[in-house]
Amino acid sequence: MTTHRRYQYAATAGAILLAAACAGSLAHRAYPPAVLFGLGVLILTEAALREHSRLKRRRLEDDWARRRALGENPPPLTPCCLLNSHSTDDIHDRNCTSDHTLTRFLDRIEQQGREEK
Ligand SMILES: [Zn+2]
Known about the structure:
Elements: H1 3-27, H2 31-69, H3 102-116
Helix pairs in contact: 1-2
The structure holds zinc ion (ZN).
Residues 80-81, 84, 92-93, 96, 98 line the site of zinc ion.
């Protein structure tokens, strides 16, 4: 079991337990704890969804790397890497699936030079 899967299961279990505690608090008309339990449900649900998306991305990257190792030339994933999704194509992760050859770099520099003129 991967770490992301483990975190996803733990967050889901915690969200379910907090939802039960929230329902129990509401049944006993204890509203302040119910609000806090509800907040915990939201936070843990977001964590479970985040881990699910990381796991999904990891599977896509593994499949991409496997196809590449078999000699295929698969297109880069979108976004090419998780680090690039937060930058303007300047920073890339070591697991980047895009092409970062010298030719591409020089083409990009020339394109920037043309845009500045
Ligand atoms: Zn990238």
